[in-house]
């Protein structure tokens, strides 16, 4: 019978020790990096950029004028304490806090699998770690906020499996917190609505109001928070959500991939001796409007296809299908974003765990287990090429890897492994403990086919 909860076996304890040692090393490196480059007028990483601009927000009420701080005012509250430290010390302290985030996210994702009656065998768990390693390293080294967003998101999805009144309240508030740090988890609002979890949805909407409006207003004043929110939305949301404009063409989301493939937009830019040298991979040169509509069409097809795949009711979240569906939503939010790079793919931890569950599950078909092992291996292999090993391909090796989107194809392989999981419906929908689910008022009998084989 699978283990449930957060009590880790010896391999996971050793893993935590390795994470702690690794993060300490990265913190020392980060401190040295900032200290060495402080006198130079250049971009070092995202967190250091925040340390430069945040004092202007916090002490002078400066407005949002660019995307140098691309997050809503609520996110300032998590970073503001670090402004009291020197920039090198702040960077090291921020990296050290990532250890808690990494371990917490990993354990919550694994626990969700076990709560659903599954488990991830050690060989698959090693492939999960290999596939997750480079996005995590990228997030830490580049001073990103993705892990900060992912921790409350993972905690909220974990709490949703409690399936009590207080559990639903905590789930809604935690997922709302993740949304108010970075917008992309909004996809989970659609998931809970689609799954008719109205109590979670209600708390989620209330939580967005609390985290986005009430809490920042208590710190910055209502007037200042509303002014900042309006400026931030105008810079970060309106161009993409209203006009469909995609700012970048060198990222790893579907809109960015389509933009560099179908329009004359640079896939990457080299700057030898201060000169700008753009490189292109486009096969046609469509207008920006056409590219935007093609991107929207692809995302719409994927969303409709996902809704059809998940069309049956789900009486309990303590089942394998919940684990797979939230993993697919997590992948989709990466695909749909206007700006997605390798560090953002830390969210793939849900998909990696779900596919690891299938790989070691005797109740999945042999063919499905084979596909799961293949997807895990492919992801680990492709993620390796997002590191400096890509330099074996030449001076532009890293660029080649990025523009052909190996992380996007990895995530697609994981999603396909879940969509064709080979589970019998009674297994996919069975709540942990083996009790068969019964028909509910919200949908048909779970004995009907829901997953491919």
What's this, in brief?
The protein is built from 18 helices and 2 strands. By secondary structure, the chain is mainly α. α4 packs parallel to α6 and α11 runs antiparallel to α12.
Oligomeric composition of the shown chains: single chain
Helix-strand string: HHHHHHHHHHHEEHHHHHHH
Q: What's the end-to-end separation, in Å?
A: 24 Å
Strand arrangement within the widest β-sheet reads 1-2
User: What class, by secondary structure content?
Assistant: mainly alpha
Please bin the fraction of helical residues: 55-70%
Quick check: average pLDDT?
88
Radius of gyration equals 22 Å
If you had to describe this structure to a student in words, what would you say it looks like?
By secondary structure, the chain is mostly helical. It has one domain (10-428). Helix content is 63%, strand content 1%. It has helices spanning 10-37, 46-60, 73-79, 87-115, 122-141, 146-160, 165-181, 187-194, 198-220, 222-241, 254-262, 288-309, 320-336, 349-359, 366-384, 397-403, 406-419, 425-428; strands at residues 268-270, 277-279. A two-stranded antiparallel ribbon has the order 1-2. Helix 5 (122-141) runs parallel beside helix 15 (366-384) and helix 14 runs antiparallel to helix 15 (366-384). The two termini are 24 Å apart. Residues 1-6 and 434-453 have low confidence and may be disordered.
Which key features would you list for this structure?
about 450 residues; mainly alpha; about 65% helix; disordered C terminus
């Amino acid at each position: 019978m699978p283990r449930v909860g957060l009590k880790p076996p010896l391999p996971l304890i050793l893993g935590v020790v390795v994470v702690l040692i690794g993060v300490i090393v990265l913190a020392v490196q980060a401190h040295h990096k900032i200290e060495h480059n402080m006198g130079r007028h250049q971009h070092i990483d995202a967190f250091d950029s925040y340390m430069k601009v945040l004092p202007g927000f916090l002490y002078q009420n400066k407005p949002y004028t660019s995307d140098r701080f691309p997050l809503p005012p609520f996110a300032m509250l998590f970073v503001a304490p670090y402004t009291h430290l020197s920039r090198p010390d702040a960077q090291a302290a921020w990296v050290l806090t990532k250890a808690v985030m990494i371990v917490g996210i990993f354990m919550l994702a694994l626990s969700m699998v076990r709560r659903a009656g599954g488990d991830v065998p050690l060989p698959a768990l090693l492939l999960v770690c290999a596939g997750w390693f480079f996005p995590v390293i990228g997030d830490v080294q580049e001073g990103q906020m993705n892990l900060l967003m992912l921790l409350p998101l993972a905690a909220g999805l974990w709490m949703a499996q409690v399936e009590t009144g207080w559990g639903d309240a905590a789930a809604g508030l935690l997922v709302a917190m993740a949304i108010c740090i970075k917008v992309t988890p909004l996809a989970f609002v659609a998931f809970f609505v689609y799954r008719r979890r109205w109590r979670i949805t209600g708390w989620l909407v209330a939580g967005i109001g609390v985290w986005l409006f009430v809490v920042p207003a208590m710190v910055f004043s209502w007037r200042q928070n509303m002014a900042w929110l309006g400026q931030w939305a105008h810079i970060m949301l309106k161009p993409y959500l209203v006009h469909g404009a995609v700012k970048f063409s060198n990222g790893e989301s579907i809109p960015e991939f389509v933009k560099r493939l179908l329009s004359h937009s640079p896939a990457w830019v080299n700057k030898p001796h201060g000169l700008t040298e753009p490189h292109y991979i486009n096969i046609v040169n469509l207008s920006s409007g056409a590219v935007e509509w093609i991107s929207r069409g692809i995302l719409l097809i994927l969303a409709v296809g996902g809704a059809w795949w998940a069309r049956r009711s789900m009486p309990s979240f303590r089942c394998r299908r919940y684990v797979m569906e939230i993993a697919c939503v997590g992948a989709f939010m990466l695909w749909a974003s206007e700006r997605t790079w390798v560090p953002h793919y830390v969210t793939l931890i849900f998909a990696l765990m779900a596919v690891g569950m299938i790989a070691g599950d005797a109740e999945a078909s042999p063919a499905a287990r084979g596909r799961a092992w293949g997807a895990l291996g492919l992801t680990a292999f492709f993620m390796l090429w997002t590191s400096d090993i890509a330099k074996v391909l030449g001076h532009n090796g890293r660029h080649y890897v990025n523009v052909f989107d190996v992380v996007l194809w990895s995530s697609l392989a994981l999603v396909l492994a879940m969509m064709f999981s080979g589970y019998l419906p009674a297994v996919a929908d069975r709540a942990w403990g083996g009790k068969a689910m019964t028909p509910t008022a919200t949908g048909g009998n779970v004995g009907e086919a829901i997953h491919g084989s």
